[in-house]
Amino acid sequence: MHLSDAEELDPARPHWKAYKRAEFFVDDDVSNLLDWANERSQGPMELVLNGDIFDFDNITAVPDEPPADVNWLGEVRGLASESWMSVYKIERIIADHPVFFDALGRWVKHGHALVFVMGNHDLELHWPDVQHRILAAIGVGTEEQVRFCDWFYVSESDTFISHGHQYDPYCSARSPIDPLISVHGRPRVQIPFGNLAERYMLNGMGYFNHHATSNYIMSLKEYVRFFVKYMLRTQPLLLWTWFWGAMVTLFVTLRDYLRPSMRDPMLVEDKVAGVAARARVTPRVVRQLNALSVPSAATDPMKVVRELWLDRGVLLLVMIWAAFQAVSYVNWVLPISPLWVLLPLALLTPVFLMYSFKVKPQVFEAPLVNQKRSELIAKITGAHNCVMGHTHIPELRRIGPLTFANCGFWSPAFAEPECLTRIGTQTFVWLRPDVVDPAGARRVELWEWPPGGDAARSFAPRPSSGVFEPVQVAG
After folding, report:
1. 33-40 long-range contacts, CB within 8 A, separation 24+
2. What average pLDDT score do residues 40-61 get?
3. pLDDT tens readout for residues 251-304
4. Do 52 and 156 share a structural domain?
5. Are the C-beta atoms of residues 413 and 27 closer than 8 Å to each other?
6. Separation CA 259–CA 187 (nearest Å)
7. Cα-based distances in Å from 36 to 27, 98, 426, 429, 442
8. 198 and 57 in contact (C-beta within 8 Å)?
9. Nearest in space to 137 (alpha carbons), one of 53, 232, 203
10. Could you tell me the pTM of the whole model?
11. What are residue 20's phi and psi, to 5 degrees?
């Protein structure tokens, strides 16, 4: 859902982060869905909010009187992930989303269960003080009524639920069991590369919608067209904003990755046992699933450099330097106009373009679950079903021994900065206890709650194409 604080309208830049405005909040739809489900329940239900419910990375506000010093980077791109910083951000989210938290409060008061599974955008839920603020906003007095799971949850022994970021090298947390590192002597949650890129690059490029990868992962031609249409007048120094943001992202990514996790040897087993208890599994399962996580992209710095476009930036700078050097040498022998620098640049441009078009983005290139990973998840957890999110693409299919579902996304994504054409729809996964397979596992169904609607619709996949079409309208 990527809930964040509300963005105020900037008259000088009316399309700047327009997708964050309160008019596009999904709170009412979430509230209506939960009321709809509660009315049809025949007993206690379980609501699993499967990661990226809160977007801590997308908040750039800073308190007027911070309890500790905030560096220049925090001032211009948002706070880091220390405990008090995360508390400040969740308080801003709570203040701007009363309908959402009221809906969760009603859900719990009706006797239903509520489970938060952490995703890559809300890793700061690890802080106990952040969890306590959420419990207070919901109106729940104890953590027994609401569960916070570190990166996965096993529901009713038959369904493995995880946001999925641990299987994406650009967003995987290096150590989900021990997420804290020490920076300048102060603990903070270690944030993955992909999220640091959002904080330090995209937060300064407000015409790109964080919720839709098609809005910021483009070809060179698409970037040029987008810049001319939206940024030439209001953000002409975009290249500088991108360059220093990318350099900061690269530096912080490698710096934080090289810092050891904060571990107390006397608490190692207690931490594993805590993760297991919250996820309803054994400590052995926690260790095995942790070993199943993919390595961070930070293990290959060139991969990070390519995704940040820094390789192309450096190549362009080298071309410009070489062109000026060539003209300077000629000018030393035969005085010529500085405009001659355009000639070597023109000769080198095809090389630059050939390289740029050859390098393709690798984000979400590999599926979160393949045949081998499906077999391992089933063997480790004993699950028959697997539910993930992360990619924002709703999906329902069989992968190896598991019925795999992707619950899609609710965050407001649009095809253009004006926020006119909505991308996708609001989907969710329903595990039906009234319909079980021969092994006794619940049936997995993919449902839609249309934006602004008042009823859910079930979806059925076309096996040949993976496209979903509505087949039933429920009340």
Report:
1. 33/428, 33/449, 33/456, 34/103, 34/104, 34/106, 34/107, 35/103, 35/106, 36/454, 36/455, 36/456, 36/475, 38/106, 38/107, 38/110, 38/112, 40/475
2. 93
3. 999 999 999 999 889 899 999 999 999 999 999 999 999 999 999 999 989 889
4. yes
5. no
6. 11
7. 14, 19, 15, 15, 21
8. yes
9. 53
10. 0.88
11. -90, 0
213 and 182 in one domain?
yes
| Helix, strand, coil % over all residues of the chain, rounded to 5 | 45, 15, 40
Within a domain: 288: yes
Contact 165, 173 (CB under 8 A): yes
Question: Is pLDDT at 462 greater than 50 in this prediction?
Answer: no
**Amino acid identity for residue 370 in this structure:** N
Q: What is the helix (H) or strand (E) element at residue 73, kind and residue range?
A: helix 72-77
Q: What pLDDT sits at residue 438?
A: 78
pLDDT band at residue 218 using 50, 70 and 90 as cut-offs: low
Shared domain check, 178 and 316? no
Please tell me whether residues 169 and 45 are part of one structural domain.
yes
> How far is residue 64's CA from residue 81's CA, in Å, rounded to a whole number?
18
Q: What does residue 445 show for φ and ψ, rounded to 5 degrees?
A: -130, 145
Domain span at 238:
18-304+367-474
Q: How many CA atoms lie within 13 A of 226 on its CB side?
A: 22
Q: Are residues 296 and 341 in the same domain?
A: no
Handedness of CA 446, 449, 450, 453 (dihedral sign): positive
Please state the domain count of the chain. Answer: 2
Lowest mean pLDDT among 57-71, 240-254, 455-469: 455-469
Query: Is residue 13, in this structure, part of any structural domain at all?
Result: no
φ, ψ of residue 149 to 5 degrees: the values are -105, 140
Cα 374 from Cα 318, distance rounded (Å): 46
* Model confidence pLDDT, tens digit, residues 85-109: 999 999 999 999 999 999 999 999 9
Distances (CA, A) of 236 to 129, 199, 200: 41, 20, 18
Strand order in the sheet with 442-448: 427-436, 442-448, 456-461, 468-474
Pairwise CA distance, residues 468 & 360, whole Å? 28
Secondary structure (3-state) at 402: strand
DSSP 152-212: EEEETTTEEEE-SGGG-TTT--S-SSS-EEEETTEEEEPPPHHHHHHHHTGGG-TTS-TT-
Least-confidence region, from 243-247, 290-294, 296-300, 328-332: 328-332
